[in-house]
Amino acid sequence: xxxxxxxxxxxxxxxxxxxxxxxxxxxxxxxxxxxxxxxxxxxxxxxxxxxxxxxxxxxxxxxxxxxxxxxxxxxxxxxxxxxxxxxxxxxxxxxxxxxxxxxxxxxxxxxxxxxxxxxxxxxxxxxxxxxxxxxxxxxxxxxxxxxxxxxxxxxxxxxxxxxxxxxxxxxxxxxxxxxxxxxxxxxxxxxxxxxxxxxxxxxxxxxxxxxxxxxxxxxxxxxxxxxxxxxxxxxxxxxxxxxxxxxxxxxxxxxxxxxxxxxxxxxxxxxxxxxxxxxxxxxxxxxxxxxxxxxxxxxxxxxxxxxxxxxxxxxxxxxxxxxxxxxxxxxxxxxxxxxxxxxxxxxxxxxxxxxxxxxxxxxxxxxxxxxxxxxxxxxxxxxxxxxxxxxxxxxxxxxxxxxxxxxxxxxxxxxxxxxxxxxxxxxxxxxxxxxxxxxxxxxxxxxxxxxxxxxxxxxxxxxxxxxxxxxxxxxxxxxxxxxxxxxxxx
Length: 490
Description:
Elements (H helix, E strand, L loop, with lengths): L2 H28 L18 H4 L3 E2 L4 H11 L2 E6 L2 E6 L2 H9 L5 E3 L3 H7 L9 H14 L2 H20 L7 E3 H18 L6 H17 L10 H29 L9 H8 L4 H29 L4 H20 L7 H6 L1 H14 L7 E3 L3 E3 L2 E3 L4 E4 L1 H5 L50 H18 E5 L6 E2 L3 E2 L5 E6 L4
Parallel strand pairs: 3-9
Antiparallel strand pairs: 1-11, 2-3, 4-6, 5-13, 6-9, 7-8, 10-13, 11-12
Helix pairs in contact: 7-8, 7-17, 8-12, 9-10, 10-11, 10-12, 12-15, 12-17, 13-15, 13-17
């Protein structure tokens, strides 16, 4: 090859590269620039995750959120859980995200959650499979079933726990609430009776499992996550053993033995595989136990600090109990439950101020524009429910426990005129849209019935200083120690 030919080839290559570069620049210029929300991405890979998950008082949004909202506004960008993320403390955007589930956004929990709850868990499933699993749960927790069957058992399990309390003793209210909700959910899912050996063994394994769900996902010897994986295996073997026994009974025509529990219902009315049934039951044990028990503990914590609310609860439940006594009735009815109007206000206020579910994990599945901001496809989106519930522009004095804010008649103790605190569009303790918690009505029923019998039979006080912290799961570091004295309001 001649020298001139070599120069010609080199010039052609340079021109070709130059042309490609010009085309690349032109394409980049013609592509619209994204208007991302303000914010910073933090450290490589971990981003700002450590600051975001730093524990803080559950009745606040924490220093991290306060600083970011003050600096960037209610919608900001960050890097969390190893992914680029849009964080929303904006009520409108949060509703928009939940209402567009499956259209613009989908559930996107960290892999570690799916690894421990199971790939068929309702928490991590998306699309048709999630819908099918949710339909099963909704059928089992139907309004008719709550009225005719579950109310009786909620009351029965409440009284089992309360009657075990010893006068003037100090104990963990959080543990007692967890015992109540676990026994109830174990009965309705697997027909396990409270107090027997296998129920207690399952509960101990479940406590270990729960500690791992909310721990750092390090699968190393001695870690809470490794112990939880071992407990998960033990729990699944236990459930599978129950399944095999049920299948034999159904085949033998003895299916009525446990026909009221979820396991039998699923075996008879669904086409789910064994693995799917196991993950469904495990996730329902998780969902039906943890959030309800923490909410009950929060009510026990908040009420002593509001004597006026305690007095109004006593009046309400005394009136219900006296009417039942005069009618010669013993068990609570659905009409009694509906009469607990102020109790429902207390339940709502406990859920609003305590925020058991702090935020949700979502992902944009299409490019989305909201209020002039772009949310790119594939980015993580975190609607922070707690930030809306504690927003002073939406809830008057949001850090104040005020059940009267949920009354519409402006009775004593209600919010100042003009407050929009009772606007249910901003109240999303159970999420919303197609993924609205299937057990939300059961959770409120559990809280109301527990409060009914607690108020009627006991006076309690906090035995030690303790408060709920967000880790981000909500927990009382000392277990909420209380001391009780028995009394009767009748």
